[in-house]
């Protein structure tokens, strides 16, 4: 028997058509690239259990067909990013041996491009053209990116059906923040939680009780000093789960490790935390709501230092410009990167519909001095909110020096980041550096701090008359 005998109107000569007798376990890329190529082009049909070129039916029994489909799904999920929108179905037919099945995979043109095939950590982009699948050209990649740049990850339809009992954590979270009211089915449908066929949107999948993926990953760390370069790491914890569990994990991590103090105001003692609860919560919600969920292998980073907390989220400001260090949080226009996720968080009363979360952070720090004012900065691949530790008397570093990122310095100290920032724009004398650091001009400073930075190429030393000057090597650091 042949394919055209059991499938009506099949276009055998169409360049959107391909068959495989069985999925080759030894050459996964050989058939995965066809799936990616169809999705990057104008779509296509892929049949498994059909002999290539002759279209003769090979087929599977029911059990083998199910195993082949599962293997197909697992390989697509592991190696194609983002997962193409596909419809997988069994086509049944009768043969001499009895009931047989072939597998039909219908792949529409992807609304998000390019679909990337990543195998053994090597990414590739393929395009289907003239009946063959080949590597995409530079021009094709640019065109794909332009066409799909406005498509949000959380609004794409998944292949996971909606089951109400799978969202008990979301239901409880909603009730806790809405005076016990129930999250209605009618509301979920109205915001597009699932489509007409009953399949969840990507954003909704992230709220499932048992969400197992890495899209929601977070990394929480505590550093003994003022920067990551000192290599003095007290704790690194990693977590992934549904969106609600992720929010709670980050809040608990900081609350369990922050400092608490007491200040005296007009004969009244007032307890203060390192980070005001509302400011901390707004920072966590902001990171979750505006994260770029397209970026695989990334995580929200919560870093606690001696003088501050940094919350960094993957992806720069959505359709926004790169920001240097700015204290004008209320002047930042933050557009929604994830409409569905944001709508759910707004409904749960943990996010402002008008986008005024930054204003709440400012309000919580309104009585703080200049050294304790929160600020934010962003690059093309992340944005970071910095909350100063209100219990640390000196506040965060001088705002006139740049914020830098750099690889850990071998044998480094907790002074490295401040020294490199202070010496970035102009050469500084040792006495100036000592005064800035509020330390003595000692042998330790000259040898263990400045000498070590120079030895490892982070500082460049020069002499003018009898004075020694140090300037940061710009090739070893980057302004964030």
TrEMBL record:
Domain spans labelled Schlafen AlbA-2: 13-131
Gene3D superfamilies: 3.30.565.60, Schlafen, AAA domain
Organism of this sequence: Suilimivivens aceti
PANTHER family for this protein: GLPR-RELATED TRANSCRIPTIONAL REPRESSOR, SCHLAFEN ALBA-2 DOMAIN-CONTAINING PROTEIN
Highest taxon of source: Bacteria
Protein name: DNA binding domain-containing protein
InterPro entries (UniProt xref): ArsR-like_HTH (IPR011991), RecG_C_sf (IPR038475), Schlafen_AlbA_2_dom (IPR007421), Schlafen_AlbA_2_dom_sf (IPR038461)
């Amino acid at each position: 028997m042949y394919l055209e005998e059991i499938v009506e109107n099949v276009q055998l000569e169409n360049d959107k058509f391909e068959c495989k007798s069985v999925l080759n376990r030894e050459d996964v890329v050989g058939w995965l690239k066809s799936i990616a190529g169809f999705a990057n082009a104008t779509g296509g049909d892929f049949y498994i259990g059909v002999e290539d070129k002759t279209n003769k039916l090979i087929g599977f029994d029911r059990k083998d067909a199910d195993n082949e489909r599962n293997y197909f799904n697992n390989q697509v999920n592991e190696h194609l990013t983002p997962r193409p929108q596909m419809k997988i179905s069994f086509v049944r037919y009768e043969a001499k041996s009895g009931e047989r099945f072939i597998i039909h995979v219908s792949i529409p043109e992807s609304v998000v491009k390019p679909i990337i095939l990543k195998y053994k950590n090597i990414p590739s982009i393929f395009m289907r053209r003239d009946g063959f699948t080949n590597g995409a050209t530079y021009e094709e990649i640019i065109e794909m990116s332009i066409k799909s740049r406005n498509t949000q990850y959380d609004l794409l339809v998944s292949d996971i059906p909606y089951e109400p009992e799978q969202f008990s954590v979301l239901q409880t979270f909603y009730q806790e923040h809405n005076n016990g009211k129930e999250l209605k089915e009618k509301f979920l449908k109205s915001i597009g939680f699932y489509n007409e066929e009953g399949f969840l949107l990507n954003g909704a999948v992230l709220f499932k009780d048992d969400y197992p993926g890495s899209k929601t990953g977070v990394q929480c760390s505590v550093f003994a000093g003022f920067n990551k370069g000192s290599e003095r790491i007290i704790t690194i914890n990693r977590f992934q789960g549904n969106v609600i569990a992720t929010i709670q994990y980050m809040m608990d991590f900081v609350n369990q490790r922050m400092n608490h103090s007491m200040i005296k105001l007009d004969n009244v003692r007032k307890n203060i935390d390192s980070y005001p609860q509302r400011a901390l919560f707004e920072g966590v919600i902001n990171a979750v709501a505006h994260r770029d969920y397209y970026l695989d292998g990334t995580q929200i980073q919560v870093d606690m230092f001696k003088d501050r907390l940094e919350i960094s989220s993957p992806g720069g400001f959505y359709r926004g410009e790169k920001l240097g260090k700015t204290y004008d949080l209320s002047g930042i226009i933050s557009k929604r990167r994830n409409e569905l996720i944001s709508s759910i968080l707004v409904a749960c009363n943990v996010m402002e519909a008008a986008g005024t979360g930054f204003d709440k952070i400012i309000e919580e720090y309104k009585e703080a001095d200049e050294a304790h004012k929160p600020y934010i900065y962003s690059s093309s691949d992340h944005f970071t909110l910095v909350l100063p530790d209100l219990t640390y008397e000196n506040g965060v570093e001088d705002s006139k020096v740049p914020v830098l990122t750099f690889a850990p310095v071998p044998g480094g100290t907790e002074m490295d980041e401040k020294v490199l920032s202070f010496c970035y724009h102009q050469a500084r004398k040792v006495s100036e550096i000592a005064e800035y650091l509020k330390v003595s001009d000692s042998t330790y400073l000259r040898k263990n701090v400045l000498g070590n930075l120079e030895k490892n190429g982070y500082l460049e030393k020069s002499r003018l008359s009898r004075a020694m000057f140090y300037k940061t090597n710009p090739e070893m650091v980057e302004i964030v």
